[in-house]
Design goal:
Radius of gyration: 14 Å
Number of helices: 4
Structural class: alpha/beta
Shape: globular
Strand order of the largest sheet: 1-2-3
Largest sheet: 3 strands, parallel
Order of helices and strands: EHEHHHE
Length: 94
């Protein structure tokens, strides 16, 4: 078995959610995210700004609250995001 301290986690887009979750729970060598989002409601809100104004954002189940979980990550982290990403806005990487 490979020791967790030698495991590098990487997730792209939706895969960033599980990678951030695992890095927040276990000590690992590092975390890399590529074009990952802060939360499901934030992504939905960027497409349908009306969700926030209509009070509907609370109806979305957020199993990937990456903005909160990333605060628990203690390993070295590299966050990559392209400015011309048409799906996930750059603000999710800031």
């Amino acid at each position: 078995a490979v020791p967790l301290e030698r495991v590098l986690l990487m997730g792209q887009s939706l895969g960033g959610g599980p990678a951030i979750y695992l890095a927040s729970k276990y000590s690992c060598a590092g975390l890399i995210t590529v074009a990952t989002f802060t939360s499901i409601p934030a992504v939905a809100g960027s497409y349908t700004g009306i969700l926030h104004y209509a009070g509907l954002a609370g109806w979305l189940v957020d199993v990937f609250d990456n903005a909160s979980r990333i605060r628990s990550v203690r390993c070295q982290t590299l966050i990559l995001h392209g400015r011309e990403d048409d799906l996930i806005d750059m603000e999710h990487a800031e």
